[in-house]
Amino acid sequence: MTTNNPQWDKAVSAIQEAETVLVVSHVSPDGDAIGSLLGMALSLKELGKTVVGALDDDIPTYLTFIPHSDTIVNAVSGEFDLMISVDASDEERTGNVGEYGRARSKTVINLDHHPTNTGFGDIHLVVPTAVSACEIVFDLLGYMGHDISEGTAYVLLVGMVTDTLGFRIDNTTPRTLEIAQVLMQKGAPLPKIIGLTLNSKSYQDILLWKSAYPSVELEDSVIYATITLDDVANAGLDEPSDGGLVSHLIKVNEANVSVVFKEQPDNQVEISFRSKKGYDVGSLAFQLGGGGHTQASGCTVDGSIDEVKQRVIPLVHKVVAEGADPID
User: Fold this and answer.
1) Do 222 and 112 sit in the same domain of this protein?
2) What's the domain range around 242?
3) Which DSSP letter does residue 4 get?
4) Intervals of the chain under pLDDT 70
5) Count of domains for the chain
6) CB 226 within 8 A of CB 249
7) Do 140 and 253 belong together in one domain?
8) Domain boundary among 196, 211, 227
9) Based on the domain organization, do 276 and 176 belong to the same domain?
10) What pLDDT score does 324 carry?
11) At 186, which CATH number?
12) Within 13 Å, how many C-alpha atoms sit on residue 65's CB side?
């Protein structure tokens, strides 16, 4: 396996010595956040640990099918021997549950695959070459000699499928598919997972896209759209979202980078970036206080939609200008 000097031995020792463990992930959780959290939590419970899995935000509706997702709580109490943070590039991304856990845990393991990881915690399992945090959990369980159960295989494959867009992103490797094969052999239903994640879209998402499409603009291979709070409310959604629009827009042949600006309460804008190979939107998101992958990242910026667009769009054009694979 290719790693970035992960501290496997220290992580295994910390897990073996711990009796109580808190597992957390990032706010606005996606499939990899939920899958890696549950994969870790389920395995630790099988080892006889007392485990709490916690997230600040609720599970997105389209991911509530994930087995054991209803065991994740939104608030924690008590003290812990160990906290494991999965799929979060920085402390702020872990929200209130992460802040609580870091203050009340003897040891913190930082398990992540984002190149923008800030290196927080006591023990680091940061592997930027991994396609998902679930891949790192898989490797950690293998390093521990722990046999992966059917339930763990299911949730780990959810994370791998969603973070690789069905094994289509550029850093998918033969080993990625080998891990997926192992998880399928353990009982994880790949076709079902793809059907419930990548091939699933609610009518509310379609209504949201209908409202957002008039805002779509293409400028010198940068395509962007705006979603307002009114758009979200008119679509009948409970919270600001783009319904996957940013990933849809990057499919446009003439675009190298896609951006969706999502209006938030309290004069903030959440920004999602996607890019084609050769264009680093991860560094841009990090520059703006966020993080993520080279080709998929995001951040939240203070200001109105118009103010944030005026500030950020020129920076996106700079990413395109510095890109290694421009469109002719």
Assistant:
1) no
2) 203-321
3) S
4) 1-4, 324-328
5) 2
6) no
7) no
8) 196
9) no
10) 67
11) 3.90.1640.10
12) 14
- Give the sign of the dihedral formed by CA 127, CA 130, CA 131, CA 136: negative
Query: What is the model's pLDDT at position 108?
Result: 98
Q: How far apart are CA 36 and CA 110, in angstroms?
A: 12
Closest alpha carbon to 152 in 34, 242, 3, 311: 34
- Residue 291: the pLDDT is 83
Could you tell me if 185 and 211 lie in one domain? Answer: no
Hey, how many other C-beta atoms are within 10 angstroms of the C-beta on 49? 17
pLDDT at position 170: 83
Based on the fold, state whether residues 225 and 272 are members of the same structural domain: yes
pLDDT score of 169: 85
Joined together, the tokens standing for residue 304 give 């109105």
Place of tokens 């299911």: 154
Nearest to 301 by CA among 275, 257, 263, 245: 263
Q: Which of 196, 220, 243 is the last residue of a domain?
A: 196
Q: Report pTM.
A: 0.88
Do you know the residue count of the chain? 328
